[in-house]
Amino acid sequence: MRIRGYARENGSFGIRNHILVIPASVCASETASRIASRVDGAVAIPHQHGCCQVGADLVQTIRTLIGFGRNPNVGGVLVVGLGCEGIQANIISDGIRDTGKPIETVIIQDEGGTPNTIEKGVKLLEKIAEKAKEAILSEFDINELILGLECGGSDPTSGITANPVIGAASDILIGHGGSCILSETTEVIGAEHLLEKRFHDEKARRRFLEMVDDVEKKAVAMGSDLRGTQPTPGNIEGGLTTIEEKSLGCMFKAGESDFEGVLEYGEQLPSSKKGLYFMDTPGEDIDSITGMIAGGAQIIVFSTGRGTPTGSPIAPVIKLTGNPETYRRMKVNIDLNAGSVISEGKTIKEVGRDLFDMIVEVSNGKLVKAEELGHREFGIYRIGATF
Predict the structure, then answer these.
(1) Was domain 18-134 assigned CATH 1.10.10?
(2) What averages of pLDDT result for each successive group of 10 residues across the chain (387 residues)?
């Protein structure tokens, strides 16, 4: 199956052509946002991080910011730094440069303050944008598509209808040679014994189980009980009672395919081995989506029983719900009513095919509700303290 997108110099394919402004740290985030606001088609990803981080936490933030810039949905990048932060702007730009896309940096302290930086940044970004506009839509095989699988604001219909629908669509894409990412390690607790059987690589299976175990140990080390946040108050009000119950519904997003491997948060999928992967992310939706997009996902499918408007700065987020009432109430934010399984007697496979067809349409340029409404939520998962 062929779809249309933007061929990148490194052999990857994007389904959008965004111009991205990356602040190297929180100290450059406001300046980055002001630069992006003055150039059509540009989007910034302000964040709280980039300085006084150490160890694996620092490495993870760097990997995530570089991953966003490397994502094939991005046609050009401007990195904005303060100058004295822990993550220097050149670290990010050097990690993106080999993709061949246009990339520039600007440093606030070198330019003598934010007004000069904004003016220079706008000029650089306009040049990047002109270069990115030269990208030509071309056909490519759907096996180049990486689909991120997400659920949030869940209720019982998520596990009964919406997540199985996602699983059916995931299996179709993998059947065409594409790739999918299952995430949300927290929401695997209680279902890991079922998912581990689908890893045919023993090393990957052991790492998967370590990831789940580490989440539980982290909560214990903090003197906390996961039951204070998982399920969330909204999950509980919707009818979910335990993390195990939530996890047993969450896992259906992975369909029936075997896992090819595991990924750290924001780690890039290997281009040589396609299929289903598990990525170690939190259950928090926006941080989880960020990790999958940094890993190369060009598109996200997101089930929500209670309803959520979440989008992304650079990737379309298809929203579906298994709850017909939620769809009626939040139709302005939700793209597909998987609740038709309940209200109209459709089968999981039928609606799964509908979702897959929508994935193809969106990959070919159709805007999702989150894009139409300008939702660009972005958040980086932290695994350590700020010092």
Answers:
(1) no
(2) 96 97 98 98 97 97 98 98 98 98 98 98 98 93 98 90 96 98 93 94 97 89 67 67 71 96 97 94 96 98 96 98 96 97 95 98 98 98 91
Which tokens in the block code for residue 275? 């299929």
Distance in angstroms (rounded) separating the CA atoms of residues 72 and 7: 8
> Is the bond preceding residue 231 a cis peptide, omega within 30 degrees?
yes
State the DSSP code for 126: H
Long-range contacts at 227-232 (CB < 8 A, ≥ 24 apart):
230/186, 230/187, 230/189, 230/283, 231/154
Contact 279/181 with Cβ under 8 angstroms? yes
Contact by Cβ (8 Å): 289, 195: no
Query: Beta strands of 100-256 (E only): which ranges?
Result: 103-107, 137-141, 146-151, 179-182
- What pLDDT sits at residue 385? 87
Domain ranges of the chain: 18-134, 142-373
Burial 58-73 (b: 16+ CB within 10 A, else e): bebbbbbbbbbbbbbb
Q: Give φ, ψ of 280 to 5 degrees.
A: -80, 95
Q: What angle do CA 251, 225, 285 make, to 5 degrees?
A: 40
Dist CA 178 CA 164 (whole Å): 18
